[in-house]
Amino acid sequence: MPSKADVKAWKAQLVAQAEQQILKLTDSDQFKKYLNTLAKFHHYSARNIDLIYAQNPQATQVAGFKQWQKAFNRTVNRGAKAIRIAAPIIKKLTPAEQKHLDTTDERAIVGYRYLPVFDVAQTSGEPVLSAKDFVKENLADHQNVTSLYNAFKDYLNQQTDLKVSEVPLATLNGAKGYFQPSTNEIVIGSDEPDNALKLKTLYHEYAHSQLHGLKSAFKDRPRAYQETQAEAIAYVAMQNIGVDTSNYSLGYVATWAKDKAVIHSALSEIQQVSNKVIELSDGLTKQLGLQEAQKEPEHDLKKLSAHDLNKSYQSLQQQIQQTTNTQQKSQFRHQLTDVHQEISKRTQKQLKAFAEKNPEIKQPESELDQSLKR
Length: 374
What we know:
- By secondary structure, the chain is α+β, with helices and mostly antiparallel strands.
- The chain has helices spanning 4-26, 29-40, 46-55, 65-72, 95-101, 145-159, 195-211, 223-240, 246-257, 260-267, 271-287, 298-303, 306-322, 326-357, 367-373; strands spanning 62-63, 74-76, 83-92, 107-119, 123-125, 163-167, 177-180, 185-189.
- The two termini are 45 Å apart.
């Protein structure tokens, strides 16, 4: 059983490793190319973002007709319907207009015109890097994550002031879930096909509730900080139960944070919440029996064929190498010892039976006999 100091060191190590992996990704040439791509796109106002979404909810990267050609070497597809955004009309003011508007500014916005832009999906040409190049949603299938997801959701609904509900993914505008501070509610996509991703999303939104709720100390952090913190905690929580979500989480964090200073500052604040999430998960997995040694009882091992016994031995060796959870690693080693002992017993029994059937074959001298001859 690991000591409290070991557990504390394990939790701190998970956060440190998360930061190292994220920084490693942001140092990659591919990620630098992604940032250069982002720099070519205009930064739109909240008003224009709303306009874009209202006209095309699936839009991800938009630019004007000529900008697609010059900056990205792509052309707008024939018949594509433009998305209209508002562009300010700026005029140089006369002294009379300055007096009328009560301003000393030489220029002012006197109106808006609506300009056409097109989403990347409406264009063809050279590839354009996007967040999807770093955020891979297809995680490996992992046993027991559904049980833990349901237990965690029930715990939050029954033992805390949070309310967790589910809605179809189609109603979430491309998100996997969200946290609503005003109602203290977490909403998760009900029909997410990847169970590991669904559990990770619940961890992510729970982290938001703890760090960025109305009464939270870090509620006023910029969005990049908030998303970095929430996803890093989700990543750490999943690592703790032996599920690696790095293909999704590290890319998600990197595309939000972009800046190393943001990553470091944001992660320095999450240790306490990370510990809380890990403790909750450990408690729930114990209740569900998921942390119990999943070994075969002795009588069951005896029923296994030699082939299945060897297969179990090889599988346990592989699990020991792959898991990052110290408790699981210890449990797998205990199981491996049991299987090894059973294989050894069978081998000794077979050798003894062979010796009895073949008395003419000289047996090796025992260590005791050899020591007496020295």
